[in-house]
């Protein structure tokens, strides 16, 4: 497993990270997946306090056991919920962030978080106050680095440019190339892209033909366009799963491709695909079939 530096000042992380939202709600099964990922060289693990209303953090904390020193642990903050009430509310206030970090630390069973991320954001948020509390938590040693998870340019650009953030987590894949327009700006701000959804809900794996039949299109692709595209991928050299990972990692602005795994089998499928990634020329043949879409909203 190769590694890349997260931003200019962040930690060195594995090119494939484990998105923990997909972990089964079974401590034993979750532990086996996490330990298998660690054994394969994955060191970046991403969760959020929102996933399972904290349950996912608890599962991950138990799963890494005594191997905390081998993990770059990332979680997210900004959503609040009330027990017994459905849904959640957006709350990026400094008070909520400070309360939440202590709750996450307790659930994760650790005394520091490697990368603490704002879980979204709006143009109406007081970004200066949010950045200030993140800087305070960093000085206090509760977090080592921080970032944001956002697809809104009018949120992530000012956040990155006015802070010491090392990352922006955003959806990026062969089927979603909207972030590319902003890669240079993100890099210039001293941050890296952490790519979520690199396999586009399984549409870019060996299950593509099955998944595409059940999919009602994908982003700007209609159902018919998506079927035609997947068929076109099938006529190219190499495995789609491998090409999808290679495409995401082809750009130096990306530090890691975050893939989920609900079983050890899924994890090993991704690891095998990573080990078989094609060369740049092959990746370009895949990319040539796809749309270079742009974000239409949240630009100003």
From TrEMBL:
InterPro entries: AKR (IPR020471), AKR2_Oxidoreductase (IPR053135), NAD(P)_OxRdtase_dom_sf (IPR036812), NADP_OxRdtase_dom (IPR023210)
GO MF entries: oxidoreductase activity
Gene3D superfamilies registered for this protein in UniProt: NADP-dependent oxidoreductase domain
Residues annotated as domain NADP-dependent oxidoreductase: 15-280
Protein name, UniProt field: Predicted oxidoreductase
Source lineage: Bacteria, Bacillati, Bacillota, Bacilli, Bacillales
């Amino acid at each position: 497993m190769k590694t890349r530096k997260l931003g200019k000042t962040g930690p060195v992380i594995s090119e494939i990270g484990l998105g923990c939202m997909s972990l089964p709600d079974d401590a034993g099964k979750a532990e086996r997946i996490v330990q298998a990922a660690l054994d394969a060289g994955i060191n970046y693990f991403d969760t959020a306090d929102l996933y399972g209303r904290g349950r996912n953090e608890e599962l991950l904390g138990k799963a890494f056991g005594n191997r905390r020193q081998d993990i770059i642990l990332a979680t997210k903050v900004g959503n609040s919920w009330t027990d017994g009430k459905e849904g959640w509310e957006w709350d990026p206030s400094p008070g909520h962030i400070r309360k939440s970090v202590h709750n996450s630390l307790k659930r994760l069973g650790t005394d520091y978080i490697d990368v603490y991320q704002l879980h979204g954001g709006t143009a109406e948020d007081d970004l200066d106050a949010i950045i200030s509390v993140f800087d305070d938590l960093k000085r206090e040693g509760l977090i080592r680095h921080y970032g944001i998870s956002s697809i809104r340019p009018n949120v992530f650009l000012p956040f990155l440019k006015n802070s010491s953030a090392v990352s922006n987590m955003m959806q990026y894949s062969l089927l979603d190339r909207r972030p590319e327009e902003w890669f240079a700006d993100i890099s210039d701000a001293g941050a890296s892209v952490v790519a979520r959804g690199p396999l586009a809900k399984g549409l870019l794996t060996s299950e593509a033909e099955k998944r595409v039949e059940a999919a009602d299109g994908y982003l700007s692709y209609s159902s018919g366009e998506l079927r035609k595209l997947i068929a076109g991928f099938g006529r190219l050299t190499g495995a789609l799963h491998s090409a999808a990972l290679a495409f995401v990692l082809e750009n130096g602005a990306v530090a890691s491709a975050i893939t989920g795994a609900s079983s050890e089998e899924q994890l090993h499928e991704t690891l095998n695909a990573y080990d078989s990634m094609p060369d740049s020329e092959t990746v370009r043949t895949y990319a040539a079939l796809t749309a270079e879409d742009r974000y239409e909203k949240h630009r100003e």
